[in-house]
Amino acid sequence: MPKPLNVLLIEDSEDDALLLARALKKNGYEPRIERAQTARDMSRALESAPWDIILCDYHMPAFSGLEAIDLLKKTGLDIPLIIVSGAIGEETALDCIHRGAADYIMKGNLTRLGMAVQRGLEEKAMRDHHRQDEEALRRSEEKYRTILEGIGEGYYETDLAGNFTFFNDALQRMLGYPKEELLGMNYRQYTDLETAKMLYEGHHQTYLTGIPGRYMDYEIIRKNGERLTLRQSFTLLKDSGDGIIGFRGIVRDVSHLKELERDREETLEKLRQALESTVHAMAMAVEARDPYTAGHQRRVADLACAIAAEMGLEPDR
């Protein structure tokens, strides 16, 4: 069954137009042809309908093949354009292809026309598919980035050496470095030696076992010298072939939690000291009221400590 084909034919010769139509039919196409002879005709045709292919003569009284190629480029349309002309030099034919023509066919030998049209359509389909893939990838990356920028936690990706390859704005704000400076930065540049060693060991263990690292707390040094405590969980970063190419992780600033924990410990210590003082004061008051038992409680406490030492108990017990 003949394949429909919308053809914009840039040709000034009626006889040559008939020969091209016949050659297309012979190669299994059912062409719908519109003929143009000038730049204005071609522009109007490109605006009025979608075209599968453009067949263009090289020499015409009011227009040329090179002008047609340039006009098509300016429109931004992706339509295969095949130069179909009489005898022109090989250098001219190559120049047409370098400028954007899909192929060059001699009018005196149209046996390659069907093959050239098919190849042009296939290459156009491949470009369309590639553009669709790129657009899908762009949308996916945009959605991915929107999600990452919307979360409060820092997100990062590094290579196997620990150099940042990607991070979101939240992580950049935590570390306080400009984005261009942070990209490619190694974790050793914002941690001390002890912390760097701990991070290396944790990530190395994940690399060896594949087990994600969870809730690792460590201190970082921001660009301005301020210190923050971060809590991090991370896992392996793999490529499409399941090869390990780095690490990815989530980071949360827990500096305020650490401060609350320190305040809690200080408060508990103060309460413990106050309780001990209160108990001691009460014991002294009881002893002062009864001279017969004065010092008895202290002697009992000292004896209990001595017995505990003999039993090998820890002092704080």
Key descriptive features of the protein:
317 residues, alpha/beta, Rossmann fold, Beta-Lactamase, 3 domains, five-stranded parallel beta sheet, five-stranded antiparallel beta sheet, 10 helices
For this structure, the CATH topology of the largest domain is Rossmann fold
Radius of gyration: 41 Å
Strand order of the largest sheet: 2-1-3-4-5
Strand content: 15-25%
Name given to the CATH homologous superfamily of the largest domain: Response regulator
What percentage of residues falls in helices of 4 or more residues? 40-55%
What are the low-pLDDT stretches, counting only 5+ consecutive residues below 50?
none
Order of secondary-structure elements: EHEHEHEHEHEEHHHEEEHH
Characterization of the model:
- This protein is an alpha/beta fold.
- It has three domains: 3-131, Response regulator (Rossmann fold), CATH 3.40.50; 152-253, Beta-Lactamase, CATH 3.30.450.20; 261-311, no CATH class.
- The chain contains ten helices and ten strands.
- Helix 3 (65-75) links the parallel strand 3 (53-56) and strand 4 (81-85).
- The longest helix has 38 residues, at 113-150.
- The model has no long low-confidence stretch (mean pLDDT 84).
What order do the helices and strands come in, and which of them pair?
Elements: E1 3-10, H1 14-26, E2 29-36, H2 39-48, E3 53-56, H3 65-75, E4 81-85, H4 90-99, E5 103-106, H5 113-150, E6 154-159, E7 164-167, H6 169-175, H7 179-182, H8 193-209, E8 213-221, E9 227-238, E10 244-253, H9 255-289, H10 296-311
Parallel strand pairs: 1-2, 1-3, 3-4, 4-5
Antiparallel strand pairs: 6-7, 6-10, 8-9, 9-10
Helix pairs in contact: 2-3
